[in-house]
Amino acid sequence: MKKLLLPFIAFAMVMLMDSCNTAKQIPYFQNIDTLSLAASRGLFDAKIMPKDQLNITVHTSDPAAASPFNLSVSRTLGTTGSFTTGGGSLQTYLVENDGTINFPIIGKLHVLGLTKSECEQLIQEKVKPYMAKTENPVVTVKMASYRVTMLGALGSRVIPVTTEKMSILEAIASAGDLSIYGKRTNVLLIREDATGQKSIHRFNLTDANIFNDPYYYLQQNDIIYVEPNSVMAKNSGIGSSTTIWFSFIGIVTSVASLLVNILRN
Are 203 and 180 in contact (CB under 8 A)? Predict the structure, then answer.
């Protein structure tokens, strides 16, 4: 009788060991208490990329001085179906593939690779000669199209980044975090540079070295893919008959354990 029960007991032990190994892969930053975070020091500044959309505003003490540089687009339809005149919203500037924008009065400006503050300083220097010497224009630049895309075992969504700064952890949290079916040791980043060249990078969320990773902060248009773990992959192929079979094995294992206890007594 005991020999017949041995296969069922062995099966139960294998399942238990597998669940223990899976549990060890779930917690984040498992070695953080022994890790130096010195390499993570430094502030992040996003760089302007081709196809970014920039909101640019020039401020002066005399509104008339800044008016030629603040083009506006009206969004109001008239009774004839045409756009009416009015203040509307400020013009958005698309960064061309060559890294330039076409700015009023100034013309072509090369902004590729600049940070927001560097772009503001460049435009300030370009518009100042067109104003009175007493004017000190203030320029504000905002990336209107900054976003990252999340795919895989945490759902699919596009996340807008209003602060122009988002870490891999903030992106995952914004998507609702990984379920227990997400593979934490192999999170894939797909990135495109200013020339259109794609590159990949992989994160291990169980390793606290992620804080020292140069890819920790995401660029605009980054794509994050979370691979499903083996449990989710196996479950996706289970049909109704397979589910019944696993239920039957579970029942038999429970009965076998009960019989072992009875025989011991």
Answer: no
Beta-carbon contacts of 253 under 8 Å, excluding residues fewer than 6 positions away, are 8, 11, 12
Beta strands in the chain, from DSSP E residues, in sequence order: 53-59, 72-73, 89-90, 92-94, 100-103, 107-110, 138-143, 147-152, 157-160, 182-192, 198-203, 223-228
d(CA 170, CA 166): 6
DSSP notation for 10-34: HHHHHHHHHHHHHHHTSSS-TTGGG
Q: Are 182 and 153 in contact (CB under 8 A)?
A: yes
Give, to the nearest 10 degrees, the angle between helix 2-24 and helix 240-264: 120
The sheet carrying 182-192 orders its strands as 157-160, 147-152, 223-228, 182-192, 198-203
Distances (CA, A) of 138 to 60, 61, 62, 87: 7, 10, 12, 20
**CA–CA separation, 142 vs 164, rounded Å?**
8
Residue with tokens 């893919």: 225
48 vs 120: CA distance, rounded Å: 12
- What's the whole-model pTM score? 0.73
Sequence-distant (6+) residues with CB within 8 A of 221 are 49, 147, 148, 149, 192
Taking only the tens place, the pLDDT of each residue in 147-202 is 999 999 988 999 999 999 999 999 999 999 988 889 999 999 999 999 999 999 99
